[in-house]
């Protein structure tokens, strides 16, 4: 999600010492479907160029995909703000989603789902004179198309919320390139088309802007299920036309 934060970025380097875990268990699966999940620690959480957490961040997810292609999941992350209370410097984002995935050819696949964003202590955000309000609970229609090493994404906001207008559209293009020694080079660009339906809570100065460009490396640790990553994020602009900071994000993820 998706708070338009204007805080100065703290460039954190998260050093990880020796990690000792058993080899990951294979995904729980049957003829009916697959259950998978992940646990991650990141040096910070950057979303569409904006700061969601400028401190070390814990994230976790769980997803079940049926053999028919239907899937549902949950994902959560710690935040450095409360969506409805500016006096608090911490919170938790909860994402619930359900959708359908399919394959069009051996190299071409797609996923589409509806996701709802909920926040601890979430509710309403009011204008200064309390004559207008917007909910902190958001919903988006998320679509992705994958062809070989390329991923294209189109995400549309479905409701007016404190951080977005219904109809706001986020576009993304990502590429993954295999390197020697099991490393992978990852690159992506994300841009937004903003719908101007503003009020005293949310204002828009840009109809279109690039939000971020990411360049990074990732590498799994043999068959442990653990993957390390490092991404440099070039921040560009937000919906107000304000410059976004650059960030270095280090991560360690356990997939099961």
Largest sheet properties? 12 strands, antiparallel, barrel
Distance between the termini: 24 Å
Work out the helicity level.
Answer: under 10%
List the helices and strands in order.
Answer: EEEEEEEEEEEEEEEEE
Could you give the order of strands across the largest sheet? 2-5-6-7-8-11-12-13-14-15-16-17
Class from secondary-structure proportions? mainly beta
State the shape: globular
* Percent of sequence in beta strands: over 45%
Total strand segments: 17
Radius of gyration of CA atoms, rounded to a whole number: 19 Å
> Which parts are unreliable, with pLDDT below 50 for 5 consecutive residues or more?
4-26
Can you walk through the features of this model?
InterPro entries: CHP02001. This is TorF family putative porin. Residues 1-23 form the signal peptide. The model is unreliable at 4-26 (pLDDT under 50). Helix content is 0%, strand content 55%. A twelve-stranded antiparallel beta barrel has the order 2-5-6-7-8-11-12-13-14-15-16-17. Strands 3-4 form a two-stranded antiparallel sheet. A two-stranded antiparallel sheet has the order 9-10. It is globular and about 55 Å long. The chain has no helices and 17 strands. β5 and β6 (70-79) form a beta hairpin. The two termini are 24 Å apart. With 256 residues, the protein is mainly beta.
């Amino acid at each position: 999600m998706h708070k338009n934060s204007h805080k100065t970025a703290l460039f954190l380097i998260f050093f990880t010492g020796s990690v000792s875990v058993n080899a990951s268990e294979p995904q729980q699966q049957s003829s009916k479907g697959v259950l998978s999940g992940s646990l991650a620690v990141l040096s910070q959480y950057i979303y569409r160029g904006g700061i969601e957490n400028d401190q070390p961040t814990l994230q976790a997810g769980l997803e079940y995909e049926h053999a028919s292609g239907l899937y549902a999941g949950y994902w959560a992350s710690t935040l450095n703000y409360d969506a409805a209370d500016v006096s608090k410097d911490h919170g938790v984002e909860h994402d619930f989603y359900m959708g359908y995935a399919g394959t069009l050819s051996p190299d071409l696949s797609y996923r589409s789902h509806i996701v709802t964003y909920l926040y601890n202590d979430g509710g309403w955000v009011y204008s200064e004179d309390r004559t207008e309000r917007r909910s902190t609970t958001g919903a988006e229609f998320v679509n992705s198309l994958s062809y070989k090493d390329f991923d294209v994404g189109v995400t549309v906001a479905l409701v007016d919320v404190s951080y977005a207008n219904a109809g706001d559209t986020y576009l993304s293009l990502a590429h993954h390139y295999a390197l020697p020694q099991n490393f992978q080079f990852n690159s992506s660009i994300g841009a937004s088309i903003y719908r101007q339906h503003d009020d005293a809570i949310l204002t828009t100065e840009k109809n279109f802007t690039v939000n971020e460009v990411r360049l990074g490396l990732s590498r799994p640790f043999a068959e442990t299920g653990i993957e390390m990553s490092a991404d440099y994020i070039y921040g560009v602009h937000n919906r107000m036309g304000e410059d976004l900071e650059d960030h270095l994000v280090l991560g360690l993820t356990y997939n099961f």
